Amino acid sequence: MKTFKYLFKFLKQYWKDTIWTWAFVLIESVAEVLIVYFMQDLLESIQKYDPSTGMKPIAVWAAVISGIALVAIATGIIAGYFASSAAAGFGKNLRRAMFEKIQKYSFKNIDKFSTPSIVTRTTTDVTNVQNAFQMTVRTVLRAPSIMIFSLIMAFRTSSKLAWVFVAIVPFCFAALILIATWAHPIFEKVFMKYDDLNKVVLEDVDGIRVVKSFDREPEENAKFKKVSDFIYSHFTKAERRVALNGPALNFAVFTSIILLSLLGANIIVSSGGTDLDIPGYSTLITYVMMIMTSLMMVSMIYVMIIIARNSANRIVEIIVEEPDIVSPENAIMEIPNGSVQFENVNFAYHADKYVLKHIDLNFKSGETIGILGSTGSGKTTLISLIARLYDVTEGAVRVGGHDVKEYDIKALRNSVAVVLQKNVLFSGTIRENLLWGNESATDEEIKAACDAAQVTPFLERLPDGINTKLDQGGTNVSGGQKQRICIARALLKNPKILLLDDSTSACDTATDASIRAALASNRKDVTKFIIAQRVLSVKDCDTIIVMNEGEVVAQGTSEELLNSCVVYKELYYSQLGGGDFDARS
Amino acid sequence: MPAPKMSGRRNMAPVSKEAKLNSVKRLLGYVFKYYGWQFAIVMVCLLINSAAGSVGSYFVGSIFVNKFISPALSLKLGGTDVNIFTYQPSDMPFNFTTAVVILASIYVLSLICAYSYNVLMSIIGQGVQKRIRDELFEHMQSLPISYFDRRGHGDIMSVYTNDIDALREMLSRALPMVTTSIFTMIVCFFMMLFTDMVLMLVVLAFAAIIFFFTRYFVKQSSHYFVKMQIELGRTNAYIEELTNGQKVVKVFNYEDRNLIHFDEHNEALFQNTTKANRFANVLMPVVNQLGNLQYVVIALVGATFIATGFQNYNILNVWSGGTAFQIGTIVSFLMFSKSFVQPIGQVSQQLNVVALALAGASRIFEMTDAPSEIDEGYVELVNAKEDENGNPVECVERTGRWAWKHPHTNGAATTYTWLNGDITFNDVDFAYIPGKTVLHNITLWARRGQKVAFVGPTGAGKTTITNLINRFYDIEDGKVRYDGINITKIKKSDLRRSLGIVLQDTKLFTGTVKENIRYGNLDATDEEVIEAAKLSNADLFIRNLPNGYDTVLENGGASLSQGQRQLLSIARCAVANPPVMILDEATSSIDSRTEALVQAGMDAIMKGRTVFVIAHRLSTIQNSDVIMVLQNGTIIERGNHEQLLAQKGKYRELYNGKKSS
């Protein structure tokens, strides 16, 4: 419940719409109960029909009821009008609050939730909560108010009989809530199992070549069937419980009708129609229907709230998460130069599992630094610290002489361009993607960046050149082309420091060389860090770092390392015996 | 080169009416075939349950009020003292208490029926769904690779997630509701016939008005809902794309611009949602109040009858000229009108669910109808031992040696050939799409113990050749032979068991590391699994995992690096111990240094087997017995490393081009 209370804060400007909704729902409910109440008068006027007065009293009551019905239509529509904007507005605000918060997340925050989970929370979960709100915003007031008004009116009709309701309503209410509470956990389990089912399918479809290669179809079928059986048995079990819902409600309705009939008939006849008459009896039965329908709605709301609860919790988790990297107060806005120092840096993603150990490095502005090392040696982590994508666990990283923590985060990242290993292009034209680097880049600047990153040669071959539309994730260009666009995008930032994380792995060696040559001649002042698998990509760097298991094991120029570092020597000769055979050129 | 992919997007092509009707037939087919008697009971129970409501209304008005309470009240007002509980008018065969007990019994029966059909319906609904689901998956296993390439994985997944879900929604919710509604209306119709036919016309007229209004309205509002759905799709797609690229957003300081774009989507979604719901929210109040106006009309008409002395005509008394109209009839009708009109709204709300589910069912059946992989092979792989002449003899026990069992149709004795691992291609042509040949005149042979490498530019057809050996695709022309047997004669499952494949894009399954390695050979002991891991150099990193070999891998081993996944997949292949191995860029993500370490193990794994290697890294292929240089689907050069360099052709050009750059 606390979760919902917290979420309702995000109704904000739509509180007004919600209040209006409720106001009109209240009027609508009163009108509906009044219609039933006046139906009694209508029936009585029919029963007491007197040819001398004619149809007039009957017509009057008919007109009154019709009038109230019109009021009910109007208020119902108005309530729906406000309910719509309230619910949609609530969803809008929630989505916005989450998205805004995610923008402030650090890499660590993102890693904590994982990207797919963030996506589900911002899309599916918000839709779930919004739909639940949309469906309950009116009923949450309508159901209880119709119930209460009906009860009051039932007492007005016959105080002797109305106690039947007082006895049965709580019973029915308790039964419905109990059933829902009893069945819901199973449903939850089943729906979680559905995820397992989908996982089996996804892995099977994705790995169909492996499945078929190893002739594992029967095993995959068995795997699937196991989950499928679980879903079947638990689903039917849960539904057996829910199956009590209808009968419980009907039991209440039927018992009321039987009791009202027996006792009502007695009162009518014994009092000679004074304590209760036939129209009164009929009206009471109508109240039974109204009250029980409301009860059913209450139980539906209850179920909906339990269903939405999980989504709501997941949303709140996103909103309350505190970004762990923020700009300091009085932050430095200007990065003086591209020098980089690591001062005894240790880093761990998770408590004391250090992936970087005792890093002490010093680079001058404009240097080109190559980084080599096997998978998992900490290369990517090392350069991530320069752009303050993560904070060091111990020690300090200095850029331009200041600790990166002293800079305004945006100013720092404006000066440090990162070309990530897992890079992403977005749907839109190539030009639009390039403008990510600099919104106001001129055509000349774009051209220059494209030339340097070797984008220009293949742009010319594309039908629409720079205005070619990229599919989501840039799937309609090759891996190497994607990497080159990513580099151009980074260059457009005019950074003081450029971090290339295995950014040319899919480019052939000639293109790779051209990019490095362009960077060396056009971006002399930029400090460049190049992570690579190929020795070729780094061998001309001013200095080369060789990493292993989170430590820098050697540093120096290619010639120095050939003499001093066995690992480098091995790599050098194993690779330079011939390059790659990715013969795209 | 992977086969051409049409689209990974969801196939939203509209489903034709015939297809939907056909789906109804097939769904009913499942129900009748597996749940015949349950379904019959459901129908009876549904009928009784729906009847109870209308019968109750009839009892309250036409019997309680008209036959007992009204006359008793008249007697009382006339001065006679009556006890209503024992009161029995002359035209009734029972007294009031008995009448109430009769209704109570009907109610009890109906409660039992309601519970029974709910339970049975869930068994039928879930059962049918489970059968379809299981059949679908099982059938999917038998579909050819080309089917998966063509459909796209996202599209196939959506059959399981969306279509099966829609089916569930329909079978377990919409169907019972719609059936109950229809039964209620039918029973109510007959009860009205028995009560008063003129008032029945009033109810029918209102029902018609409400029906047409609802239909018109739903049609109109669906236009807004489609717009809303599109906008929701756009907004969610934006969120998904940008969140997937959130790290890029951060490094480019794109957050503020991102929020501006997001707000545009979010606001448009808000506007569309509000509009659609505002429109939709008009329906319920109007329908509800039309019901109330119907009350008024019934009461007015009834009053007129009483005032004018118009007779009460029902199906029983219409020929005898009717009976006097009484107020109890109005009471009954007030209840009938509700039971008759309410289902209209309910059904119309469920129609969308039903339509969606039928479209989904059509897509499901479309998949279960897709033709399976054809396997006309009859040559089997059997355990074999050596007879005195060194020839293979079939045996039951596991000898570790295998032979091809080749029955002959012409009556000759079944022959046995040792499983050796010799592969030959004879003038093979291949096309993914008929007429568009991608491999031309491929002729090659590989003997046991040989390593054959394929090099060449992306799209030259390297992977395609290997896909022909295990018959993921069938050749267009020519012959592929395995140990001298045409591979089309070999049972596919046996053919594939005799081949081990390691793909560049490693696929692991949820489960422990051990289970993933054992996927290659379910009979492998723990020792064999660890042995295979040691050979592929995976042992070291596996031991460093939190639970070693029992570490559970989730999401296809997302927690491992691509290189580590490749090592596992090599181990998986090694444990299968196949005579022929295909390594398709199997070490591409393993850095050169680690690859050098793996090399010794790889050499051990490859020893004594026929190995096909595809790699772009020279060190991987340099020591091959023969290297095939492919270009545009043709082998343009072949020979070992030295021979090819000496040829001064493409190979040397590639080789030197790299070196000098």
**Number of alpha- plus pi-helical segments of chain A:** 20
**Count of helical regions of chain B:** 19
Uncertain regions spanning at least 5 consecutive residues of chain A: 581-585
Summing up helix and strand content along with how strands pair, one would put the structural category of chain A as: alpha/beta
SS strand fraction of chain A: 5-15%
Helix % of chain A is 55-70%
- For the terminal residues of chain A, how far apart are their CA atoms? 63 Å
Q: What does this protein look like?
A:
The complex is a heterodimer of chains A (about 575) and B (about 650). Chain A has about 575 residues and is an alpha/beta fold. Chain A has 20 helices and twelve strands. In chain A, the strands form three sheets. In chain A, strands 6-9-10-3-11-12 form a six-stranded mixed sheet. Chain A has a four-stranded antiparallel sheet with strand order 2-1-4-5, with no helix packed on it. In chain A, strands 7-8 form a two-stranded antiparallel sheet. In chain A, helix 2 runs parallel beside helix 5 and helix 19 crosses helix 20. Chain A is elongated. Chain B has about 650 residues and is α+β, with helices and mostly antiparallel strands. Chain B has 19 helices and 18 strands. In chain B, helix 1 runs antiparallel to helix 2, helix 2 runs parallel beside helix 9 and helix 8 runs antiparallel to helix 9. The two termini of chain B are about 25 Å apart. The N terminus of chain B is likely disordered. The chains are: A alpha/beta (about 575), B alpha+beta (about 650). At the A-B interface, helix 2, helix 3, helix 5, helix 6 and helix 7 of A face helix 1, helix 2, helix 4, helix 5 and helix 6 of B.
Question: Layout of SSEs?
Answer:
The complex is a heterodimer of chains A (585) and B (661).
Chain A: H1 2-8, H2 15-47, H3 56-104, H4 107-113, H5 115-157, H6 163-206, H7 208-213, H8 217-242, H9 245-271, H10 278-320, E1 340-348, E2 354-363, E3 368-373, H11 379-384, E4 394-399, E5 402-403, H12 409-415, E6 416-419, E7 428-429, H13 430-434, H14 443-452, H15 456-459, E8 469-470, H16 479-491, E9 497-501, H17 509-522, E10 527-531, H18 535-538, E11 543-548, E12 551-556, H19 558-564, H20 566-575
Parallel strand pairs in A: 3-10, 3-11, 6-9, 9-10
Antiparallel strand pairs in A: 1-2, 1-4, 4-5, 7-8, 11-12
Chain B: H1 17-77, H2 96-141, H3 145-151, H4 153-195, H5 197-244, H6 246-251, H7 255-280, H8 283-308, E1 311-312, E2 323-324, H9 327-368, E3 380-386, E4 392-394, E5 402-406, E6 415-418, E7 423-431, E8 437-446, E9 451-455, H10 462-469, E10 477-482, E11 485-486, H11 492-497, E12 499-502, E13 511-512, H12 513-518, H13 526-535, H14 539-544, E14 552-553, H15 562-576, E15 580-584, H16 592-606, E16 610-614, H17 618-621, E17 626-631, E18 634-639, H18 641-647, H19 650-660
Parallel strand pairs in B: 9-16, 9-17, 12-15, 15-16
Antiparallel strand pairs in B: 1-2, 3-4, 3-5, 5-6, 7-8, 7-10, 10-11, 13-14, 17-18
Helix pairs in contact in B: 1-2, 1-4, 1-9, 2-4, 2-9, 4-9, 5-7, 5-8, 5-9, 8-9, 13-15
